[in-house]
Design goal:
Number of domains: 1
Largest sheet: 7 strands, mixed
CATH architecture: 4-Layer Sandwich
Number of strands: 15
Radius of gyration: 18 Å
Order of helices and strands: EEHEHEEEHHEHEEEEHEEEE
CATH topology: Double-stranded beta-helix
Shape: globular
CATH superfamily: Clavaminate synthase-like
CATH class: Alpha Beta
Length: 280
């Protein structure tokens, strides 16, 4: 395979062309793909046509795919694929349509061991709208004033599935699911296990409170860091094409989905996540 890599955004992200993931991936190509993701944080592999199992298997080049924990949205042919659709509804809640990931977040931060990477395959995409936005959390951290970096270097934050600070509705979970998801503590600044770089570790949709700070002080700090991080100079906005597979590194990015496509337009994505490590 001849790998072609081109920058997508000014601050992050690259597109890969000249690869067919239905074909075996050579060791050298696999290495190049993993390095490209580390270098660019977000990687888009263009022009793919993949059945569920070959898609899952191709993603093994980046890590070990994890089984999904939402049975109703799991692909019937593959336990490691979550189906995200314009038809998604809060089936255990009010039954209304639900836009998964509509607020800035990083995947799985409410878990003790969050996933490392997320892969999203655009099976059906609307002609307009439905973009996904990303934040470079390395750069957001690097640009903080020295005094702020010193203040937050050792702080930890409580993350929870249904945070009182959340910016959008989250799907209702069963009592059994919630019992398996107790609040967890993560560093406010994490060190990437492969690059060694420091990144802000924020999830405005899951963060509850900074440990050791009064609620008002905690809210002010988290709000200020989020406002800083989501500035345009740290963003990349991905305009989807059918057949795109977008892979991002949750250890150094945030992202959000946009449901601004026309009524009746269809958007169907297949999501795979790969195992991570405890944030440090």
């Amino acid at each position: 395979m001849s790998l072609s890599l081109a920058p997508l955004g000014q601050h992050m992200a690259a597109a890969v062309e000249g690869i067919d993931l239905n074909q075996p991936i050579a060791a050298a190509t696999a290495h190049d793909l993993r390095q490209a993701l580390l270098d660019h944080l977000v990687l888009c592999i263009r022009g793919q046509t993949l059945a569920p199992l070959p898609y899952r298997d191709a993603m093994r080049v980046f890590g070990a795919p994890m089984k999904q924990i939402t049975p109703a949205a799991t692909h019937p042919d593959c336990d490691e694929i979550l189906v995200l659709s314009s038809e998604d509804r809060d089936t255990l809640g009010d039954g209304k349509k639900l836009v998964v990931g509509a607020h800035w977040h990083t995947d799985d931060s409410y878990k003790a061991v969050p996933c490392a990477l997320t892969m999203l395959y655009g099976v059906e995409v609307p002609a307009t709208g439905g973009d996904t936005q990303f934040i470079n959390m390395y750069a957001a951290h690097d640009d903080l004033p020295a005094a702020t970096k010193e203040r937050i270097a050792d702080l930890r934050v409580i993350h929870t599935y249904d945070s009182s600070r959340k910016g959008n509705r989250v799907a209702k979970r069963t009592a059994a699911d919630m019992a398996r998801m107790p609040p967890v503590s993560h560093p406010l600044v994490r060190t990437h296990p492969e690059t060694g770089r420091k990144a802000l570790y924020l999830n405005p949709n899951r963060m509850e409170q900074v440990e050791g700070l009064a609620r008002a002080e905690s809210d002010a700090l988290l709000d200020a860091l989020t406002t800083h991080a989501i500035q345009p100079q740290y963003q990349y906005r991905h305009h989807w094409r059918a057949g795109d597979i977008v892979i991002w590194d949750n250890r150094c990015t945030m992202h959000k989905a946009n449901a601004d496509y026309p009524e009746g337009a269809r958007r169907r994505m297949h999501r795979v996540i790969v195992a991570g490590t405890v944030p440090v």
